[in-house]
Amino acid sequence: LTLGRSLRGAVQRGEMELHYQPQRDATSLALTGFEALIRWISPELGRVSPARFIPIAETLGMMPEIGEWVVGEVCRQAREWLDQGHRDFEIAFNVSAQELQRPGFVDQVRDALSVHEVPASTLNIELTESSLMENVDRVRRTLAELRAIGTRLSLDDFGTGYSSLAYLKQFPIDKLKIDQRFVRGLPYSDDDAAIAQTIVVLAHQLRMRVSAEGVETGEQAEFLRKLGCDELQGYYLGRPAAAPSASAFFPAAQ
Ligand code: G
Ligand code: G
Ligand code: MN
Ligand code: NA
Protein backbone atom coordinates (compact mmCIF):
# COMPACT_ATOMS: atom_id res chain seq x y z
CA LEU A 1 0.00 0.00 0.00
CA THR A 2 2.84 2.39 0.92
CA LEU A 3 4.58 1.39 -2.27
CA GLY A 4 1.41 1.97 -4.27
CA ARG A 5 0.92 5.41 -2.70
CA SER A 6 4.49 6.44 -3.58
CA LEU A 7 4.08 5.03 -7.08
CA ARG A 8 1.15 7.32 -7.89
CA GLY A 9 2.50 10.30 -9.78
CA ALA A 10 6.06 8.92 -9.83
CA VAL A 11 6.25 9.25 -13.63
CA GLN A 12 5.18 12.92 -13.61
CA ARG A 13 7.56 13.68 -10.74
CA GLY A 14 10.43 12.39 -12.88
CA GLU A 15 11.31 9.49 -10.57
CA MET A 16 11.62 6.94 -13.41
CA GLU A 17 14.75 6.36 -15.46
CA LEU A 18 15.68 3.91 -18.17
CA HIS A 19 18.97 2.09 -17.99
CA TYR A 20 20.38 0.56 -21.17
CA GLN A 21 22.18 -2.78 -21.24
CA PRO A 22 24.26 -3.55 -24.35
CA GLN A 23 23.46 -6.52 -26.61
CA ARG A 24 26.35 -7.78 -28.72
CA ASP A 25 26.99 -9.98 -31.71
CA ALA A 26 28.22 -13.30 -30.30
CA THR A 27 31.10 -13.62 -32.77
CA SER A 28 32.43 -10.08 -33.22
CA LEU A 29 31.15 -8.74 -29.89
CA ALA A 30 30.10 -5.62 -31.83
CA LEU A 31 27.17 -3.70 -30.33
CA THR A 32 23.83 -4.64 -31.91
CA GLY A 33 21.64 -2.66 -29.53
CA PHE A 34 20.41 -2.23 -25.99
CA GLU A 35 17.69 -3.49 -23.68
CA ALA A 36 15.98 -0.63 -21.84
CA LEU A 37 15.27 -1.49 -18.19
CA ILE A 38 13.11 0.78 -16.05
CA ARG A 39 14.46 2.09 -12.76
CA TRP A 40 12.37 3.81 -10.08
CA ILE A 41 14.21 5.99 -7.60
CA SER A 42 11.59 6.85 -4.99
CA PRO A 43 12.37 9.70 -2.56
CA GLU A 44 10.64 7.70 0.22
CA LEU A 45 11.65 4.12 -0.66
CA GLY A 46 14.91 4.48 -2.53
CA ARG A 47 15.53 2.21 -5.50
CA VAL A 48 12.67 -0.20 -6.12
CA SER A 49 13.09 -3.07 -8.58
CA PRO A 50 10.64 -3.27 -11.48
CA ALA A 51 10.14 -6.91 -10.48
CA ARG A 52 8.42 -5.44 -7.37
CA PHE A 53 6.65 -2.34 -8.64
CA ILE A 54 5.41 -3.45 -12.09
CA PRO A 55 2.96 -6.04 -10.62
CA ILE A 56 1.66 -3.38 -8.21
CA ALA A 57 1.37 -0.83 -11.01
CA GLU A 58 -0.67 -3.41 -12.93
CA THR A 59 -3.02 -3.98 -9.99
CA LEU A 60 -3.46 -0.21 -9.58
CA GLY A 61 -4.13 0.28 -13.31
CA MET A 62 -1.03 2.42 -13.74
CA MET A 63 0.64 0.49 -16.54
CA PRO A 64 -0.82 2.48 -19.42
CA GLU A 65 0.89 5.55 -18.00
CA ILE A 66 4.20 3.83 -17.21
CA GLY A 67 4.25 1.94 -20.50
CA GLU A 68 3.55 5.11 -22.46
CA TRP A 69 6.42 6.82 -20.67
CA VAL A 70 8.76 3.88 -21.46
CA VAL A 71 8.05 3.77 -25.19
CA GLY A 72 8.19 7.58 -25.44
CA GLU A 73 11.50 7.69 -23.58
CA VAL A 74 12.96 4.85 -25.66
CA CYS A 75 12.06 6.72 -28.86
CA ARG A 76 13.36 10.04 -27.50
CA GLN A 77 16.67 8.34 -26.64
CA ALA A 78 16.84 6.58 -30.02
CA ARG A 79 16.39 9.96 -31.74
CA GLU A 80 19.12 11.49 -29.60
CA TRP A 81 21.55 8.70 -30.50
CA LEU A 82 20.60 8.90 -34.19
CA ASP A 83 21.20 12.68 -34.08
CA GLN A 84 24.64 11.97 -32.62
CA GLY A 85 25.38 9.88 -35.72
CA HIS A 86 24.99 6.40 -34.24
CA ARG A 87 23.53 3.84 -36.64
CA ASP A 88 22.49 0.19 -36.82
CA PHE A 89 21.34 -0.24 -33.25
CA GLU A 90 18.03 -1.41 -31.88
CA ILE A 91 16.50 -0.68 -28.51
CA ALA A 92 14.53 -3.48 -26.91
CA PHE A 93 12.00 -2.79 -24.17
CA ASN A 94 9.82 -5.03 -22.02
CA VAL A 95 6.08 -5.24 -22.33
CA SER A 96 3.98 -7.18 -19.83
CA ALA A 97 1.02 -9.38 -20.73
CA GLN A 98 -1.37 -6.74 -19.46
CA GLU A 99 0.21 -4.00 -21.58
CA LEU A 100 0.11 -6.16 -24.70
CA GLN A 101 -3.59 -6.89 -24.18
CA ARG A 102 -4.57 -3.25 -23.79
CA PRO A 103 -6.40 -1.64 -26.70
CA GLY A 104 -4.36 1.42 -27.60
CA PHE A 105 -0.97 -0.18 -27.06
CA VAL A 106 -0.16 -0.31 -30.76
CA ASP A 107 -1.25 3.32 -31.20
CA GLN A 108 1.06 4.32 -28.34
CA VAL A 109 3.99 2.70 -30.13
CA ARG A 110 3.04 4.23 -33.48
CA ASP A 111 2.66 7.71 -31.94
CA ALA A 112 6.00 7.57 -30.11
CA LEU A 113 7.79 6.52 -33.31
CA SER A 114 6.19 9.30 -35.30
CA VAL A 115 6.69 12.07 -32.69
CA HIS A 116 10.41 11.32 -32.49
CA GLU A 117 10.81 10.34 -36.16
CA VAL A 118 12.43 7.03 -35.33
CA PRO A 119 12.45 4.11 -37.83
CA ALA A 120 10.17 1.38 -36.48
CA SER A 121 12.86 -1.26 -37.01
CA THR A 122 14.82 0.42 -34.20
CA LEU A 123 12.31 -0.91 -31.67
CA ASN A 124 12.39 -4.49 -30.44
CA ILE A 125 9.51 -5.39 -28.16
CA GLU A 126 10.28 -8.09 -25.58
CA LEU A 127 7.29 -10.27 -24.77
CA THR A 128 6.97 -13.24 -22.46
CA GLU A 129 5.63 -16.66 -23.37
CA SER A 130 2.68 -16.30 -21.03
CA SER A 131 1.65 -13.00 -22.61
CA LEU A 132 1.29 -14.78 -25.96
CA MET A 133 -0.84 -17.56 -24.57
CA GLU A 134 -3.64 -15.37 -23.19
CA ASN A 135 -6.27 -14.34 -25.76
CA VAL A 136 -4.27 -15.90 -28.56
CA ASP A 137 -6.37 -14.50 -31.40
CA ARG A 138 -6.23 -10.97 -30.08
CA VAL A 139 -2.48 -11.22 -29.47
CA ARG A 140 -1.99 -12.55 -32.98
CA ARG A 141 -3.73 -9.46 -34.38
CA THR A 142 -1.71 -7.13 -32.15
CA LEU A 143 1.58 -8.73 -33.21
CA ALA A 144 0.55 -8.53 -36.86
CA GLU A 145 -0.14 -4.80 -36.41
CA LEU A 146 3.24 -4.25 -34.75
CA ARG A 147 4.89 -6.21 -37.54
CA ALA A 148 3.08 -4.11 -40.13
CA ILE A 149 4.46 -0.96 -38.50
CA GLY A 150 7.91 -2.55 -38.70
CA THR A 151 8.90 -3.10 -35.06
CA ARG A 152 10.77 -6.29 -34.15
CA LEU A 153 9.54 -8.81 -31.60
CA SER A 154 11.47 -10.96 -29.14
CA LEU A 155 10.40 -13.70 -26.80
CA ASP A 156 12.01 -13.02 -23.42
CA ASP A 157 12.94 -15.49 -20.66
CA PHE A 158 12.48 -18.29 -23.18
CA GLY A 159 12.20 -21.75 -21.70
CA THR A 160 10.79 -20.68 -18.36
CA GLY A 161 7.19 -19.95 -19.28
CA TYR A 162 4.37 -21.97 -20.55
CA SER A 163 4.17 -21.75 -24.29
CA SER A 164 2.95 -24.01 -26.97
CA LEU A 165 5.39 -24.70 -29.79
CA ALA A 166 2.40 -25.03 -32.09
CA TYR A 167 1.52 -21.39 -31.42
CA LEU A 168 5.11 -20.22 -31.37
CA LYS A 169 5.60 -20.92 -35.04
CA GLN A 170 2.50 -18.89 -35.91
CA PHE A 171 3.66 -15.70 -34.22
CA PRO A 172 5.93 -13.29 -36.12
CA ILE A 173 8.75 -13.49 -33.55
CA ASP A 174 12.23 -12.36 -34.65
CA LYS A 175 14.31 -13.45 -31.67
CA LEU A 176 14.29 -15.95 -28.81
CA LYS A 177 16.12 -14.89 -25.65
CA ILE A 178 17.46 -17.85 -23.66
CA ASP A 179 16.66 -17.18 -20.03
CA GLN A 180 19.59 -16.53 -17.73
CA ARG A 181 18.76 -19.48 -15.52
CA PHE A 182 19.98 -21.78 -18.32
CA VAL A 183 23.11 -19.69 -18.80
CA ARG A 184 24.07 -19.65 -15.13
CA GLY A 185 25.41 -23.23 -15.08
CA LEU A 186 27.34 -23.01 -18.36
CA PRO A 187 29.71 -24.40 -19.44
CA TYR A 188 29.76 -27.05 -16.69
CA SER A 189 26.13 -28.12 -16.39
CA ASP A 190 25.28 -30.71 -19.04
CA ASP A 191 21.59 -30.04 -18.49
CA ASP A 192 21.92 -26.30 -19.08
CA ALA A 193 24.10 -26.98 -22.12
CA ALA A 194 21.47 -29.35 -23.54
CA ILE A 195 18.68 -26.82 -22.98
CA ALA A 196 20.66 -23.90 -24.43
CA GLN A 197 21.63 -25.95 -27.49
CA THR A 198 18.04 -27.08 -28.01
CA ILE A 199 16.77 -23.50 -27.92
CA VAL A 200 19.44 -22.40 -30.44
CA VAL A 201 18.42 -25.18 -32.84
CA LEU A 202 14.71 -24.50 -32.34
CA ALA A 203 15.14 -20.76 -33.00
CA HIS A 204 17.18 -21.31 -36.15
CA GLN A 205 14.83 -23.99 -37.47
CA LEU A 206 11.98 -21.48 -37.04
CA ARG A 207 14.13 -18.81 -38.78
CA MET A 208 14.54 -16.70 -35.66
CA ARG A 209 17.64 -15.19 -34.14
CA VAL A 210 18.65 -16.34 -30.69
CA SER A 211 20.30 -14.46 -27.89
CA ALA A 212 21.44 -15.48 -24.41
CA GLU A 213 20.90 -13.38 -21.32
CA GLY A 214 22.79 -13.20 -18.07
CA VAL A 215 26.19 -13.99 -19.62
CA GLU A 216 28.63 -13.22 -16.83
CA THR A 217 31.89 -14.88 -17.91
CA GLY A 218 34.10 -15.19 -20.97
CA GLU A 219 33.73 -18.96 -20.78
CA GLN A 220 29.94 -18.67 -21.03
CA ALA A 221 30.24 -16.25 -23.96
CA GLU A 222 32.59 -18.59 -25.83
CA PHE A 223 30.45 -21.64 -25.12
CA LEU A 224 27.29 -19.91 -26.38
CA ARG A 225 29.07 -18.62 -29.49
CA LYS A 226 30.14 -22.19 -30.30
CA LEU A 227 26.56 -23.39 -29.85
CA GLY A 228 25.58 -20.93 -32.59
CA CYS A 229 23.93 -18.31 -30.44
CA ASP A 230 23.68 -15.05 -32.44
CA GLU A 231 23.76 -12.44 -29.69
CA LEU A 232 24.87 -12.15 -26.09
CA GLN A 233 23.74 -9.99 -23.19
CA GLY A 234 24.90 -9.91 -19.59
CA TYR A 235 27.35 -8.33 -17.19
CA TYR A 236 30.30 -9.80 -19.13
CA LEU A 237 29.17 -7.83 -22.20
CA GLY A 238 28.19 -4.72 -20.23
CA ARG A 239 26.01 -3.70 -17.31
CA PRO A 240 22.86 -1.64 -17.62
CA ALA A 241 23.70 2.07 -17.41
CA ALA A 242 21.91 5.41 -17.70
CA ALA A 243 22.00 6.86 -21.21
CA PRO A 244 25.03 9.12 -20.90
CA SER A 245 27.22 6.19 -19.75
CA ALA A 246 25.54 3.71 -22.10
CA SER A 247 26.59 5.93 -25.05
CA ALA A 248 30.13 4.75 -24.38
CA PHE A 249 29.11 1.28 -25.64
CA PHE A 250 28.83 2.61 -29.21
CA PRO A 251 31.92 1.99 -31.29
CA ALA A 252 34.24 4.99 -31.56
CA ALA A 253 33.58 7.13 -34.65
CA GLN A 254 35.50 5.99 -37.73
O1 G B 1 16.49 -4.92 -14.63
P1 G B 1 15.86 -5.87 -13.66
O2 G B 1 16.49 -7.20 -13.40
O3 G B 1 15.69 -5.21 -12.34
O4 G B 1 14.37 -6.16 -14.21
C1 G B 1 13.50 -6.94 -13.45
C2 G B 1 12.28 -7.29 -14.27
O5 G B 1 11.56 -6.10 -14.64
C3 G B 1 12.58 -8.03 -15.55
O6 G B 1 11.65 -9.09 -15.67
C4 G B 1 12.29 -7.01 -16.63
O7 G B 1 11.79 -7.63 -17.80
C5 G B 1 11.23 -6.15 -15.99
N1 G B 1 11.23 -4.80 -16.56
C6 G B 1 12.28 -3.94 -16.65
N2 G B 1 11.92 -2.80 -17.25
C7 G B 1 10.62 -2.94 -17.60
C8 G B 1 9.68 -2.11 -18.29
O8 G B 1 9.97 -1.01 -18.74
N3 G B 1 8.41 -2.61 -18.44
C9 G B 1 8.05 -3.83 -17.99
N4 G B 1 6.79 -4.22 -18.20
N5 G B 1 8.90 -4.64 -17.35
C10 G B 1 10.18 -4.20 -17.16
O1 G C 1 13.19 -10.44 -17.50
P1 G C 1 14.24 -9.72 -18.24
O2 G C 1 15.08 -10.62 -19.06
O3 G C 1 13.72 -8.56 -19.04
O4 G C 1 15.20 -9.07 -17.16
C1 G C 1 16.55 -9.01 -17.32
C2 G C 1 17.13 -8.78 -15.93
O5 G C 1 18.40 -9.39 -15.80
C3 G C 1 17.33 -7.31 -15.63
O6 G C 1 16.89 -7.10 -14.34
C4 G C 1 18.83 -7.12 -15.68
O7 G C 1 19.25 -6.10 -14.79
C5 G C 1 19.33 -8.48 -15.23
N1 G C 1 20.65 -8.85 -15.76
C6 G C 1 21.21 -8.46 -16.92
N2 G C 1 22.42 -9.05 -17.10
C7 G C 1 22.62 -9.83 -16.03
C8 G C 1 23.69 -10.71 -15.64
O8 G C 1 24.70 -10.87 -16.33
N3 G C 1 23.54 -11.35 -14.45
C9 G C 1 22.45 -11.18 -13.66
N4 G C 1 22.40 -11.87 -12.51
N5 G C 1 21.41 -10.39 -14.00
C10 G C 1 21.50 -9.71 -15.18
MN1 MN D 1 13.84 -8.43 -21.08
NA1 NA E 1 14.76 -12.10 -19.83
TrEMBL record:
Residue ranges crossing the lipid bilayer per the database entry: none
Domain EAL, first and last residues per copy: 1-254
Protein name: PAS domain S-box-containing protein/diguanylate cyclase (GGDEF) domain-containing protein
Species this chain originates from: Dokdonella immobilis
Range covered out of full length: 577 to 830 of 845
